[in-house]
Design a protein that fits this description.
- The protein has 4 domains: 244 residues, no CATH class; 233 residues, no CATH class; 211 residues, no CATH class; 187 residues, Immunoglobulin-like, CATH 2.60.40.
- The N and C termini lie far apart (142 Å).
- The chain is mainly beta.
- It has 5 helices and 61 strands.
- The strands form 11 sheets. A 13-stranded mixed beta sheet has the order 58-61-47-48-56-51-52-53-54-55-49-59-60, with no helix packed on it. Strands 1-2-14-9-10-11-12-13-5-16-17 form an 11-stranded antiparallel beta sheet, with no helix packed on it. Strands 18-20-28-23-24-25-26-27-21-30-31 form an 11-stranded antiparallel beta sheet, with no helix packed on it.
């Protein structure tokens, strides 16, 4: 029997095209690709693929031989060309290799066309063939990793061609032949595949009726009779379908590889573009719903698309398949937003990882498992009974085909069929409302292959984004019916998009509660020091919480209890330029290289965001000390890199004024002039649920030395709405603190009666003792207030306006504290008190980084001038100096000669811990005592 080695490129394409002869070298000199008819979406009567190989003359220049033997052959069919392997029954492989009368023992119902081969198989007396042998082409069970297989027996030699779907755009059908035998020389091949193999018109060339042992002209296969497929008319199904788009021309690419040399030749044949797209219809139904029916709740999403394409399977000549989908956009209703909780533990799939996703790759070998957010199931009428499964992965932000924050990769795989389809989707978020729109096929994409979906017939697509603690979506905040709008752009008529609407209902409030009519605003608040031992340094923690369904927090002000203060001394300040730089950075950039100097850092900021039981925690935020802001001497700035999971939403910068209450020295944090805490970034509603601030700079936050019960107070804002909050605070161990301050007094100047001496007072507390809470000083009986010098006190209005007359200035004061780099100092005024007391008050107006006002009540007790500072701020002071003028501007006047006896004052100091220290210090004067042996005296 004559053996013939045959090479086939059997896959089915549509078109007719001839390629000019090539130079004498391995490759093709003529190609043909033809699809009968030009109607888009129709079922062609037949599809032809043909090629001729380049030839060379032998030494006698009488015989032609192929220039190289063909080993492998791939034929890539045009995008949109479709075949239905289930339309024709398959021949059992055992029957296929059983040859009866030169034909496989396969049933006639498995024949899908025929193959014509021209070759030389006689190695003894070779001659250039001038005719073709024809062989029936059978449908066989597919090889692993392919969707279909065709085969024929050529003069006793089985030849098979695998058909599959390319794993890269445009995901076209291709035919694959490998390791063709070298036992014969192949000159040309022509494969004819029928669009409706069961059509009785093909009976003369089916199975045993096709003559295989005689050669003939290529266009005239020989028949020995009529062989019916024995298929009822009602059971006939179309085998081939033309593309459903009129973009063209249609191109089939032939790639051949030679034995031995490995030379490769790729050439193309073209068929005319399809016509009549206006007759190709498109319709679909969608159903979508959220997994939760409660308002403002974490939710998944199920989305079903169903296409009933009867024309895809109908073999009748007038039947047309529906158009494929070129682009689609699904827009969720306003109110359905991204849930930040999903970012917790989420990873992203890079483009490099996506490239590793193949038909044979295992889950996790490409895109990481932690990047998966959904499941996909796809059914197509072309693979009846098969459900293709897939996954939805989050794409790497900004490093995806769209350069967008959010994008998805839909990966559909089937190892058995060799299918791997990867479809990127752009997720767009409204920057104001957070409304979500997902688009497959982006006309603006730089890569042309991403501008459209592949032309693949669909039956049903089911997408499921599961619910649970990390649900990807949040339901609307109100009950009602909501619509999901889907727009489909068909390949056949892109200018006529098709829109569907599906609806879902929100039926209750959170956890099945009644439907909400408004957003409550009652945030939680907690604050305190880690170690509340009086007078010790300890980290300060502040926590603000919000429940699901409540209004967002946009600002908070805080007033710390008296005595809970911070040590500013030695702390650097973050500059305005550095703060501006932080605002312009990405979150990752700020994490890697913080904008503010480390020396200005006061603590950390941690935020928990999301809806449901599991939050996403944003770590790495810092709290810094900054300079003057909004009229306050200092400020604090929270810089939080908004990095969660794979997402980087930039850097959130919130700055608030920092000041002290001038009478109590309480720390005040005021955000009235600051930008509000953002509620949405890059279209992602932040849904801040838990804000934690830790002021943990070593040796910074100092506890009070008073153990009286106090309150940490806060005012929380949601836009114009407010909520007052407070937290009990109480230091402990105050009684263990000592209290032994020292006060020294000195009169300088005239000592005789009617003279006006100046007064210098020095108060020196001991480090580590309780702070002074109150002080009372009774001056010696020899001093009284000169009524003539109290006629021009500063009024309260003048004092508030900082316009006190010069005559009201009694002297100066200066306070040194370890909390500040520089002392506080200022004038001491006689200030009227509105008649509350008989005499004006003595007011020390201390200024520096902060302003502190000390008010002393002046009266007479037992004919002695008494000054009482009834409330002194609970803050450590290392030294306090008070100087009152003497002379003409002096307030004090001698009512006797000061040198007649020692002048003693009575001093009563009370610590913040309640301990009392009473002393009667000698008031030094300008009097001179007599020295020994005529020596100089000394002042006393």
């Amino acid at each position: 029997m004559r053996r013939f080695l045959l090479l086939l490129v059997g896959v089915f394409l549509l078109a007719l095209g001839m390629v000019a002869p090539a130079q004498a070298e391995f490759g093709f000199r003529a190609l043909e690709f033809d699809i009968s008819g030009t109607q888009a979406g129709a079922h062609p009567a037949e599809v032809i693929t043909a090629f001729e190989m380049n030839t060379l003359l032998d030494e006698s220049e009488e015989l032609e031989f192929p220039d190289g033997q063909l080993k492998n052959l791939d034929v890539d069919l045009p995008e949109g060309f479709a075949g239905n392997p289930g339309a024709v029954s398959t021949c059992d492989p055992a029957l296929f290799i059983t040859v009866v009368n030169a034909h496989p023992a396969c049933p006639n119902s498995t024949v899908v066309g025929y193959v014509a081969l021209k070759g030389e198989f006689d190695p003894i007396e070779p001659e250039a063939p001038n005719a073709y042998f024809h062989f029936p082409l059978h449908n066989l069970p597919p090889s692993p990793g392919f969707a279909a297989k065709l085969g024929f027996i050529a003069l006793g030699v089985p030849v098979t061609v695998d058909l599959g779907l390319r794993e890269s755009p445009p995901y076209n059908v291709y035919a694959h032949l490998t390791n063709a035998s070298e036992a014969a020389l192949l000159y040309a091949s022509k494969v004819t595949v029928w669009g409706d193999p069961a059509d009785p018109l093909h009976d003369p060339y089916r199975g045993g009726c096709l003559v295989t042992d005689e050669s003939s002209e290529i266009d005239e296969p020989l028949s020995s009779g009529s062989c019916s497929a024995e298929i009822e008319e009602a059971d006939r199904i179309a085998f081939l379908t033309s593309p459903r788009s009129c973009e063209g021309p249609l191109v089939a690419a032939f790639t051949g590889v030679a034995w031995n040399s490995g030379d490769t030749d790729t050439q193309s044949a073209q068929a005319p573009a399809r016509e009549g797209c206006s007759e190709v219809e498109f319709e679909t139904q969608t159903a979508a719903e959220l997994t939760s029916t409660a308002a403002e709740s974490a939710s998944g999403l199920s989305f079903n698309l169903e296409i009933e394409d009867e024309g895809l399977l109908d073999p009748n000549e007038e039947a047309l398949a529906l158009s494929d989908i070129k682009r689609t956009e699904v827009v969720l209703p306003e109110g359905v937003t991204i849930n930040p909780s999903q970012a917790n533990g989420l990873e992203a799939c890079t483009e490099a990882q996506l490239a590793k996703e193949t038909a044979t790759s295992h889950f996790g070998a490409g895109c990481p498992a932690a990047a998966k957010v959904g499941n996909v199931e796809v059914e197509t009428p072309l693979l009846e009974g098969e459900v293709l499964e897939g996954s939805l992965f989050v794409a790497e932000p900004y490093q995806n085909p769209f350069g967008s924050l959010l994008a998805l990769y839909m990966v559909i795989q089937d190892r058995d069929l060799g299918i791997s389809v990867k479809l990127p989707a752009k997720v767009s978020l409204d920057p104001v409302t957070g409304q979500v729109a997902t688009t497959f096929g982006d006309p603006s994409a730089e890569d042309p292959l991403l501008r459209s979906l592949p032309q693949l017939p669909l039956g049903e697509v089911r997408v499921n984004l599961p619910g649970g603690p990390r649900s990807p979506l949040v339901t609307p905040p109100r009950c009602g019916t909501y619509e999901i709008n889907s727009t489909f752009v068909p390949w056949a008529n892109p200018e006529e998009p098709f829109t569907t609407t599906s609806s879902f209902e929100i039926l209750s409030g959170l956890g099945g509660s009644p439907c909400p009519t408004s957003e409550p605003f009652a945030p939680g608040f907690d604050a305190g020091t880690l170690n509340n031992t009086a007078g010790s340094y300890s980290p300060l923690g502040i926590r603000i919480t919000r429940s699901d369904g409540e209004a967002n927090i946009t600002r908070f002000d805080s007033l710390l209890p008296p005595g809970l203060v911070g040590k500013i001394a030695g702390v650097a300040q973050c500059s305005d330029a550095a703060i501006a730089a932080a605002k312009a950075k990405s979150g990752v950039e700020e994490l890697v290289l913080p904008s503010c100097p480390a020396g200005s850092k006061l603590g950390t900021v941690t935020a928990g965001a999301g809806v449901g039981s599991e939050l996403t925690w944003v770590q790495g935020g810092s709290l810094y000390l900054a300079g003057p802001f909004a009229g306050a001497p200092l400020s604090v700035v929270a810089i939080v890199p908004a990095v969660a999971g794979p997402f980087d939403l930039g850097t959130v910068v919130t700055r608030e004024a920092l000041s002290l209450d001038p009478t109590t020295a309480q720390v005040k944090v005021d955000g009235a002039a600051a930008d509000p805490i953002p509620t949405i970034l890059e279209g992602v509603p932040l849904r801040l649920r838990d804000l934690r601030i830790s002021v943990d700079r070593p040796q910074f936050t100092l506890n009070p030395t008073s153990c009286n019960e106090k309150q940490v107070q806060a005012m929380l804002f949601s836009g114009a709405r407010t909520s007052a909050a407070s937290r009990r605070f109480q230091a402990s161990g105050c009684s263990a603190l000592s209290f032994k301050p020292t006060l020294k007094l000195r009169l300088k100047g005239g000592t005789r009666r009617s003279k006006h001496p100046s007064l210098r007072s020095v108060l020196i507390p001991r480090a580590g003792d309780a702070n002074i809470g109150a002080a009372t000083v009774l001056l010696p009986r020899s001093l009284q207030i000169d009524n003539a010098h109290i006629n021009n006190p500063c009024t309260r209005v003048q004092f508030a306006a900082e316009q006190c007359p010069a005559g009201s200035i009694l002297g100066t004061a200066k306070a040194f504290t370890p909390l500040l780099d520089q002392p506080l100092e200022g004038n001491v005024y006689f200030r009227s008190n509105g008649g509350e007391r008989e005499l004006p008050d003595v007011v020390a107006d201390l200024r520096g980084q902060f302003r502190i006002i000390l008010v002393g009540f002046v009266d007479s007790r037992n004919a002695r001038i008494r000054t009482r500072f009834a409330s002194v701020p609970d803050a450590p002071v290392s030294k306090f100096l008070l100087r009152l003028k003497g002379g003409k501007a002096g307030l004090l006047v001698n009512n006797r000669n000061l040198c007649g006896s020692k002048q003693r004052a009575k001093v009563s100091l009370i610590g913040q811990n309640g301990k009392r220290r009473d002393t009667e210090p000698v008031v030094k004067t300008s009097c001179r005592s007599k020295g020994k042996q005529g020596g100089k005296g000394k002042r006393r």
